Structures are given as structure tokens and as C-alpha cells.
Amino acid sequence: MTRSAQTLMLALLLATGVGYSSSGTAQSSGAKPGVEDDLRAANASSQDVAEGKRLADATCARCHGAKGISSSKGVPHIAGQRPAYLHLELRAYQTGTRGNTPMEAAVKFLSDDALVKVAAYYASLDPATPSNTKPAPAKPDPVQAGKAAASGCAGCHGEGGISKTGGVPSLIGQDPKFLISAMQAYKSGQRKNDMMKTLLAAVTETEMGNIALYYALQKPAKAATPAAGDKAAGKAAAADCGGCHGDLGVSGSPATPSLAGQDAEYLVDALKAYKSGARSDDTMKSLAAALDEKNMKNIAAYYNSLQPQPPKAKKPLSTAEWVQRCDRCHGVNGNSTDPRLPALAAQRADYMDKVLRSYQKGERKNTSMAAMSTGLSDAEIENLSSYYAQQKARSVVFITQPGK
Ligand code: HEC
Ligand code: HEC
Ligand code: HEC
Ligand code: HEC
Questions:
Q1: CB 3.0 to 4.6 Å from 331: which of 137, 231, 259, 336, for a disulfide?
Q2: Minimum CA distance residue for ligand 2 atom 17
Q3: Where in the chain are the domains?
Q4: Is-same-fold flag (3-135+318-389; 142-304)?
């Protein structure tokens, strides 16, 4: 790295406050060490840009559009994109690390010098205008949607899922995956209960997911129902249950329900159902077979007395909350101020949708983007892609420091 490049990079990092890990990009582009700090494209002369234009018109325009504004699905706009980023990606196609056959073919026989110039040319162009396609109607907040879908459940399961009716289970304190599989089992008839089957008949898979998330995020409290048995005797009799249901009745696995604070009458009913085979589960059947009614009541009283805990479930972020995180690297509203980091503002939504999924699957490799994309749901990817496509794109002038 030259002295002037070093000064420039420092100036940029100070100006933008971007915490930038160069090791991440070195891996992403598969480039030689040091190449990620290659800022030649940002330092290009007007003659370089003119030469880059000739190459672009001859080789790239047929796919990327006359002035780097694409009108083809899956082909990105490259006008006004950040210069060092463009150069890095062109190298990644050339070395095969980004693995896209048409792009590989387009750059295969170009010298690195030509890549610098064509990158400088595209970076110098005015960016695309923001997409004005109406955003897909914003997907409702899943927690609110879950609350609405669960409004008919409160009559039996209690407000916020805390049961006030003996024989009806509380729904709080359970991993959402357990609640979903319980609902699916009623719906399919695998878990036999005609009433729950009828109640869930019209509830969709999406609604089940939302309902489960809603209950998982409610503040847990013990069921407001009486317990008849002997807690102390129950604690001793439950010695073998903690291995799966947790020492204090709080399970660590989504397949196993938590029992802490559960309605005692329901716990007894469930154990009887396992014992008789009315509820089928091989493990629970053999365990329940060894218990008589008195033991069941004592165990139920013990678990009922324990404090339920919130399961591992997080409220999903809104698009605005995601954008705050993405903008830390990609600049305000996706207008990157680092020549090595791509701008997202006014980029094609279909293209961003595609690349976010390829980061997620590990097809396009980059440490930062792998981490940022893993947790994104399909709806979040669509919302973010459409958000950035609609932002005004601003080109950035990178001021280089005179060399020494
Ligand atoms: C046959 C059509 C085609 C040609 C010719 C072509 N490209 Fe591409 N280009 C694509 C497609 C498709 C993608 C998206 C590929 C992907 O998802 O990785 C792409 C992606 C890119 C990217 C990555 C942009 C980003 O935001 O990450 C750059 C840079 C690029 N092209 C520059 C060029 C240059 C410079 C040329 C000429 C030397 C060129 N392309 C020629 C089709 C083409
Ligand atoms: C008329 C009363 C009633 C209504 C309304 C009701 N439930 Fe239930 N629910 C029950 C009873 C009783 C059980 C226990 C059934 C059994 O023994 O398997 C149960 C069991 C469940 C379970 C299994 C819990 C566990 O720990 O295994 C889930 C999940 C559930 N209900 C969800 C719902 C949802 C979601 C709604 C609203 C769409 C709903 N229920 C409406 C009475 C009701
Ligand atoms: C080897 C692991 C394991 C052990 C040990 C175990 N359980 Fe379970 N238990 C499960 C699983 C898995 C389920 C869920 C089965 C299903 O889907 O119906 C379950 C379900 C239950 C339920 C139904 C809860 C609900 O919300 O529907 C009760 C009650 C229960 N167990 C009590 C006990 C008691 C009491 C003991 C000790 C005597 C015990 N379990 C020991 C794995 C275990
Ligand atoms: C820690 C920094 C960082 C954060 C935070 C970040 N990104 Fe990135 N992003 C990068 C880097 C570096 C690249 C270029 C990686 C490469 O070479 O493939 C990139 C590339 C992208 C691309 C591909 C751009 C193109 O033109 O091909 C998209 C789309 C993208 N990011 C979207 C997002 C979204 C959406 C978020 C928030 C959920 C996000 N990024 C958060 C660093 C980050």
C-alpha cells in the first residue's frame, strides 16, 4: 500500500467512523492479501476514465445498459457504484471466487489495469434514480398479528396465555417451536383432541407461527389455578423428569415442553393421557406408566409451584431497525462513503434480493454479510431490498491526499 493510499484510507475511516475489517474482505474476494486496500480505481485520472468508457461501451453495455443503468432482471446497476468496490468485485469474478459465469466470461481476459479503468468509469457516472414501484404492502408486525389471531384463545387459555381454568394449559413460557408443533399435531389429528382440532382448523401455518411468537414474548407467570397435591413429595417423585424438562421445570429443548408454573390439573390429565395411550409419545408413555394418580398429583403440584421463565425467542426487528444496522457499513440510506463498500441506494430490488439469499446460503462469500444475512427471513429480505431500491442515490467524491 502506498503512503497516499494509507493517508486516504485513514481519512475515510475517521470521516465515516466505519469499523472496517480488511481481513473480512480479503476472504470475500479471495484476493491476494493487501488487494482489499487497493484504491487505484478511486484515484484514477480523467484519461483512465475515458479509456474505461471505451471498454465499457464495447463489452459491458449490452448487459449493464448504456450508462451502467440496467434494465434486466438480476443485472445490477453499476453507475455511481463505489470505485474500489467495483474493482474488487471484478477481481472476484476474474479469480472465480464470486462464481457467476457470464461475468467470469466478460472479465476473464482483461488486465488488472483495464479493470481499474472500467471500475473508475462506472463509478464516475450518475447513479440510477430510485425505484418508484409501490412497495409490497408492509407485512404486519408478527407479534401484533399473533395477538390478533390469538384473541379467541384467551377465553380458555387466559389473557396473555396464563390459564385461569383448571384443565386448560397455560401457553406462556414455551418455546415457540413446541407450541407450533402442538398446534400442528392437533390439526393433523396426530394429537387427539376434537375441540382443539376444530378450533385450529381455520388457522394457517403463518398464523400459528405468529401466535406462538406472541405467547413466547408474554411475561411468564404461574397459572392462576389451584393445585391439590403435595409439593415436597412431588419434588422427590420428579427426580427423573429434570433430565429432559429441566431441573426447575424449564426445558432447554424446543421439542420438550417446560412444566414450571403449568396448571396442575392439565399436567395430571396429560400424564394420564400418555399412560392410557390417548396421547401418543413413547418416552412419556413408559414414564407415566410407572406413576399412580397420587404421584401424578404430587408431581403436578411441584411443577405448578415453580416459576416459569421466558423462552429463547426474540422480537423480530422492523425494517427501520434493520436499516440502522445495515447503514453502519453501507452509509446513510445505503449511500456508502467508503470506496470499498457498496452503495445500496437505488440498486435494483430483484438483484439485492438475489444476492442477500446467496450470502445467506454461503454461495457468495463474505464474513460480514454472512453474519448480517443469516437471521433474515424471506419477508425481511423483501422489505430491505425494496427499501433500499427506493432511496435516493448520491454519488460521493473521494478526495485523495497528495502523495509524498
Ligand atoms: C452477459 C451479461 C453481462 C456482461 C457482458 C457483463 N456483465 Fe457484469 N454482471 C452481469 C450479471 C448477471 C451480474 C450479477 C451477477 C451476480 O449476481 O454475481 C453482473 C455483476 C457485475 C458487477 C457486480 C456489481 C455489484 O454490485 O456487486 C460488476 C462490477 C459488473 N458486473 C461489471 C461488469 C463490467 C465492468 C463488464 C464489462 C467488462 C460487465 N460487467 C459485463 C452481467 C453481465
Ligand atoms: C374452549 C377452550 C379452548 C379454546 C378456545 C382454545 N383452547 Fe387450546 N386447549 C384447550 C384445552 C382443554 C387443551 C388441552 C387439550 C389436551 O388435553 O390435549 C388445549 C391445548 C392447547 C395447546 C397444547 C399446549 C401444551 O402444553 O401441550 C395449545 C398449543 C393450544 N391449546 C393452543 C390454542 C390456541 C392457539 C387457541 C386459539 C386459536 C386455543 N388453544 C383455543 C382449550 C381451549
Ligand atoms: C427422555 C426425556 C423425557 C423425560 C425423562 C420426561 N419427559 Fe415429559 N416430555 C418429553 C417430551 C419430548 C414431551 C413432549 C411429547 C409430546 O409431544 O407429546 C413431554 C411431555 C410431557 C408433558 C406434557 C406437557 C404439555 O405441555 O403438554 C408432561 C406433563 C410431562 N412430559 C411430564 C413428565 C414427567 C412428570 C416426567 C418424569 C416422570 C417426564 N415428563 C419425563 C420428554 C421427557
Ligand atoms: C459490517 C459491515 C456490513 C454490514 C453491517 C452490512 N453489510 Fe452489506 N456488505 C458489506 C460488505 C463488505 C459487502 C461487500 C461484500 C462482497 O464483497 O461480497 C456488502 C455487500 C452487500 C450487498 C451486495 C451489494 C452488491 O452490489 O452486490 C448487499 C445487497 C448488502 N450488503 C446488503 C446489506 C444489508 C441489507 C445489510 C443489513 C441487514 C447489510 N448489508 C449490512 C458489509 C456490511
A1: 336
A2: 270
A3: 3-135+318-389, 142-304
A4: yes
Q: What is the CA 186 to chain-centroid distance, rounded?
A: 29
Low-confidence residues of the chain: pLDDT under 70: 1-36, 134-139, 400-404
Pick the atom of ligand 3 nearest to 290's CA: 38
- Does the beta carbon of 118 sit less than 6 angstroms from any atom of ligand 2? no
Residues 308, 259 contacting (CB under 8 angstroms): no
For ligand 2, atom 34: residue with the closest CA? 153
Is the Cβ atom of 269 under 6 angstroms away from ligand 2?
Answer: yes
Look at residue 204 in the predicted model and tell me its pLDDT: 96
pLDDT per position as a tens digit, 145-163: 999 999 999 999 999 999 9
From the alpha carbon of 255, which atom of ligand 3 is closest? 12
Residue 261, ligand 3, Cβ within 6 A: no
Asked whether 55 and 122 are in contact (CB, 8 A), the reply is no
Cβ contact 338:82 at 8 Å: yes
Per-residue confidence (pLDDT) for residue 140, from 0 to 100: 72
pLDDT given at position 327: 98
pLDDT of residue 404: 52
Whether residue 157 contacts residue 169, with contact meaning beta carbons closer than 8 Å, is answered with yes
CA of 315 to the centre of ligand 2 (A): 23
pLDDT (0 to 100) of residue 182: 98
d(CA 329, CA 322): 12
Pick the CATH number of 3-135+318-389 from 1.10.260.40, 1.10.3720.10, 1.10.760.10, 3.40.630.30: 1.10.760.10
**pTM of the prediction?**
0.75
Q: Which ligand is nearest to the CA of 330?
A: 4
Residue labelled with grid coordinates 468509469? 121
**Residue count of the chain:** 404
Closest CA to 135 of 397, 402, 391: 391
Whether residue 270 has its Cβ less than 6 Å from ligand 3: yes
Ligand 2 centre and the CA of 245: distance in Å? 20
142-304: CATH topology: Cytochrome Bc1 Complex; Chain D, domain 2 (1.10.760)
User: pLDDT of 206-245, one tens digit each?
Assistant: 999 999 999 999 999 999 999 999 999 999 999 999 999 9
